[in-house]
């Protein structure tokens, strides 16, 4: 993946990384591992997401954990048109929205946004441009 980090001063930082997705728990959940930057360089983000579908809410329970940075988030994810949108709070108590857009069989664009309160506009913090590779 190619990553763009949007900084408070309006500048950006670019890096690369890798993501690994797979079905787990006998097909009852999806787990993904996010590593940035790409190995073997020491990572600045090394986390995992567990996504479990709940037919009662017609959505996914999402739990993110990055023990390297002590960053944790719980969200609910649902399809919105052609996108997948996950909304919850991060470990700082900020509202977090993660959007998977431009989804194809081999790629997607992930947009991470945050805001302090419901009345604040969403602010883009990260973008990941992922593409499938054959390893």
Q: What topology emerges from the helices and strands here?
A:
Elements: E1 2-6, E2 12-16, E3 18-24, E4 29-36, E5 45-54, E6 59-66, E7 71-80, E8 83-90, E9 95-101, E10 107-115, E11 123-131
Antiparallel strand pairs: 1-2, 1-11, 3-4, 4-5, 5-6, 6-7, 7-8, 8-9, 9-10, 10-11
CATH class descriptor name: Mainly Beta
Largest beta sheet: what is the strand line-up? 2-1-11-10-9-8-7-6-5-4-3
Give the % helix.
under 10%
**Strand residues, percent:** over 45%
**Helix-strand category:** mainly beta
CATH topology: Lipocalin
On the 0-100 scale, what is the average pLDDT?
Answer: 93
Distance between the termini: 14 Å
State the CATH architecture. Beta Barrel
Tell me the Rg in angstroms.
15 Å
| Low-confidence runs of at least 5 consecutive residues | none
Element string (H = helix, E = strand)? EEEEEEEEEEE
How would you classify the quaternary structure? single chain
According to DSSP, the number of beta strands is 11
Shape field: globular
Q: Count helical runs.
A: 0
Number of domains: 1
Q: Main sheet, how many strands, which sense, barrel?
A: 11 strands, antiparallel
């Amino acid at each position: 993946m190619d990553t763009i980090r949007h900084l408070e001063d309006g500048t950006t930082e670019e890096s690369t990384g890798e993501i690994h997705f797979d079905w787990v728990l006998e097909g009852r959940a999806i787990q993904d591992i996010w590593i940035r930057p790409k190995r073997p360089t020491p990572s600045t983000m090394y986390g995992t997401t567990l996504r479990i579908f709940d037919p009662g809410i017609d959505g996914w329970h999402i739990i993110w954990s990055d023990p390297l940075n002590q960053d944790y988030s719980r969200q609910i994810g649902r399809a919105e048109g052609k996108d997948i949108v996950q909304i919850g709070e991060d470990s700082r108590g900020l509202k977090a929205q993660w959007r998977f857009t431009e989804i194809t069989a081999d790629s997607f664009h992930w947009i991470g946004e945050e805001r302090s309160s419901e009345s604040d506009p969403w602010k883009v913090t990260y973008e990941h441009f992922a593409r499938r590779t054959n390893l």
